[in-house]
Amino acid sequence: MSDTNLVLSDAPAIEGLRFRLYRGEEDIPALEAVRREVQAVDGEIWMPGPDTVPNPACDPTRDCLIAEVAGRMVAYTWLTWWEETNGTLLYLHLGWVVPTWQRKGIGRALLHWQEQRLREIASANTGKGIPTFGGNADESQPANRALLLNEGYAVAFTVVKMLCELPAEPVEIAPMPEGLTLRPVEEAHLPAIYAANDSIFQESRHGYSTDSYEEFLADAGWSPETKGLWLVAWDGNQIAGLVISKIEGGEGETPWVAVARDWRRRGVAKALLTLTLRTMQEQSIPRTRLLTVAENPNHSVRLYEGVGYHVTSRHPRYRKLM
């Protein structure tokens, strides 16, 4: 299928190097091989692709570029885009080169092609936000980081992964501020919880975009069996704060921690978090994880460290105006 081949003007002079677009299921074994090689060095980094994203924003047959040397896949790319609540139209390009072929110019050629392709996509977008390129380079990816910095990108914010190994002794539950009450979460509460969480995160400057109600429930892991890990503090009929957790693979995960502006710095989050940890202990959960942002103005990393979490990795997110 020679019609999938592309000529890149700034491709490095490497014998046997060619670039082509994704051809469908026949490429999946080679994509998986690239993932294994990259993750063997860089760790379990996020590497989406046409075989892992069921309903992609992009068209893989037009937007997933592959690099081969002597017929062997050595790199592939991925594109996606969304509108963030701060007015950013983010066009995220991702790409991975197997370690033995890094720092030879392949990644730069792929990046330049991706930027041009995203400009074409952005020109047809009717959104009113600010078109912005996005790129990811985790701490374990110095080659990616160097490439992005050399191409004019800067760190916009840093995603922080944190882990809490639950101790043998019971976690001390911090007191709930006076005036707030906890109620068992029922299905009738879910729309209000969704609306409150989204409203609180609307002010975020760090990559937040609104999910649909259905997406929120799926991500948060709602079910009658896990509702005991959905903790909501109520101020009358208004939600003052929430900590939503779930169990996956026998371990805990907390996708959402949110406190209304009027109740911040008053101990709401600490009370809900410590109660969450105690509840997990009672269910014999050995450890639990969450994500936050290092630049969070409410000093979330310090909050989580204060209840027993520690940082396991940092994942800078790079941006550049289109």
TrEMBL record:
The GO terms describing molecular function are:
acyltransferase activity, transferring groups other than amino-acyl groups
Gene3D superfamilies per UniProt: 3.40.630.30
* Domain (N-acetyltransferase): residue spans on this chain: 17-167, 180-322
Q: Cross-referenced PROSITE patterns, in alphabetical order?
A: GNAT (PS51186)
Q: Which InterPro entries match?
A: Acyl_CoA_acyltransferase, Bact_Acetyltransf, GNAT_dom
Q: State one Pfam family annotation.
A: Acetyltransf_1
Per the record's keyword annotation, is Transferase included, yes or no? yes
Record keywords: Acyltransferase, Transferase
Cross-referenced PANTHER family: AMINOALKYLPHOSPHONATE N-ACETYLTRANSFERASE-RELATED (PTHR43877:SF2), AMINOALKYLPHOSPHONATE N-ACETYLTRANSFERASE-RELATED-RELATED (PTHR43877)
Protein name from the UniProt record: Putative acetyltransferase, GNAT
